[in-house]
Amino acid sequence: MSINKFHLNWKILKRICVSAVILAFLCLLAYSHHRERVRIAELTKVLEETITLSDTPIKVEVRNPKNFQATAYNITGITKSGLPVAPGHVAADPRVIPLGSMIYIESALMGGIYQVTDTGRLIKGRIIDIFIPNYNESIEFGRRKVKVEVLRYGYGDDDPSSKR
Question: Span 77-103, mean pLDDT?
Answer without folding.
Answer: 87
